[in-house]
Amino acid sequence: MNYKEATEYVESLQPYGCVPGLDSISCLCAHLGNPQDKLKFVHIAGTNGKGSVLAYISTILTAAGYRVGRYISPAVSDYREHFQIDGRMISKQAFCKYLEPVKEAAERMVSDGRPHPTPFEIETATAFLYFQDKKCDIVALETGMGGELDATNIIKTPLCAVLTSISMDHMAQLGNSLKEIASQKAGIIKEGVCVVSARQDPEAAEVIKQRAELLHCDLRIADEGKIFNLKFFKSALTKRVPSGEALPGQRFSYGSHKDLEISLLGKYQTQNAIVAIEAVEALKDAGFKISEQQLKRGLSGTRWRGRFEIIGKDPLFIADGAHNEDAALKLAESIRFYFPDKKIIYIMGALRDKDYDKVISATHMLAKQIITVTPPGNKRALDGYELAKAVKEYHDSVTAADSLMEAVESAYLLAGKDKDAVIIAFGSLSFLGALTDIVEHRDRIRRDSHGKSEEN
């Protein structure tokens, strides 16, 4: 199997959809020798913040000298982002190598009369094989959706179960109340495992507390009240630095940890950072050796795509994966803080099965103009013209673009030479990778067939 064949195989799996439950993944992993049983895990569930918390934890562990697997979803720019070791994507050759036996195991299951595994189950089993063969010391494992019936929950005893902010999302699959959703997310909690949770709404907090008590778990809450000396550096948004480097976006102290720095922007990132710190403390109790210097180096060195990320300057261009009400409210808070009195231009894209109306409601008032797009290459995408109609209920100045390139060019035209203009793309992570590529390579993409720039 070469990489083209591998990607075509992955694409062919899409009709199998998403089927909650552990029977299929258990059978698939059994065919592969249960590689997950030979690994150690930090298991992460929640509605928002999972990716950022995973990035903080895994970068700190890497800074401490451990070999760390990362299993994440969704990918932003490249499918192989799902599978990482020490922050580096799996190679194309390695992906083919580890996908092949998973494909063969899936075919044996079908021959035995079992349902074909879902795409996420195939990916999860591939990740387990890859991390086990590469002898990872620990794996930061992100759930795909939910927790209790998520394919990743096949793991038996994680070293730490982490619950990030829980809010309303995926209601069709997880339940129509916060209590039901929290119950699904808390399903990753297992007997005697240390549990770390972000501060939750009371309804979700009670569900987590009860399950932790039932299973005799030590429950640690990342308490924002223990944050002090918090300082935001707005210069991180505008000052130019060498490629690969970053200015501190925020500096703070938390409990006994003094003068911590993170480069990730967004006011909510301190909340994600302290969840990661509590998880690291739990891992230290489990025997991992992580010094204060290594913790600080890991926090400051953490990078994460599509989370209030600067993808362009002159004018400032921000990409954020806010796709539900809670994330949209946090995005709005950051816009108010970083860009008061600025001319804000939105590029919005959404998936049809998301509550995009609430995303619009939480953010529309901050925009001068709004451009809508259809996320490309996604069967769940909401048509940009349909999204524009929904936006029109809240905001008069909205237009739908026929492509991401058109949306980007329109946003730049609207910004003009206004130094106070800021372009913000959000609504779904599914289109941010392609949009980022357009912004970062805009001059090359705009060249005509004669090799001349449109500006000439």
Short structural description:
The chain has 456 residues and is of the alpha/beta class.
Using the 3D structure, state the CATH architecture of the largest domain.
3-Layer(aba) Sandwich
CATH-assigned fold name of the largest domain: UDP-N-acetylmuramoyl-L-alanine:D-glutamate ligase
Number of strands: 17
Helical stretch tally:
17
Beta-strand residue fraction: 15-25%
Regarding quaternary structure, how should these chains be classified? Answer: single chain
Tell me the helix content. Answer: 25-40%
Classify the secondary structure makeup into a structural class. alpha/beta
Radius of gyration: 22 Å
CATH superfamily of the largest domain: Mur-like, catalytic domain
> What is the straight-line distance between the termini?
45 Å
* Structural domains: how many: 2
Shape: globular
Please list the strands of the largest sheet in the order they lie side by side. 4-3-2-5-1-6-7-8
pLDDT under 50 segments (min length 5)? 448-456
Characterization of this structure:
The structure is a single chain. Helix content is 39%, strand content 17%. The chain has 456 residues and is an alpha/beta fold. It has 2 domains: 3-301, UDP-N-acetylmuramoyl-L-alanine:D-glutamate ligase, CATH 3.40.1190; 309-445, Protein-Tyrosine Phosphatase, Chain A, CATH 3.90.190. An 8-stranded mixed sheet has the order 4-3-2-5-1-6-7-8, sandwiched between helices. The longest helix is centred in the first third of the chain and has 20 residues, at 92-111. The chain is globular, with a radius of gyration of 22 Å. The protein starts with a helix and ends in an 11-residue tail after the last helix. The model is unreliable at 448-456 (pLDDT under 50).
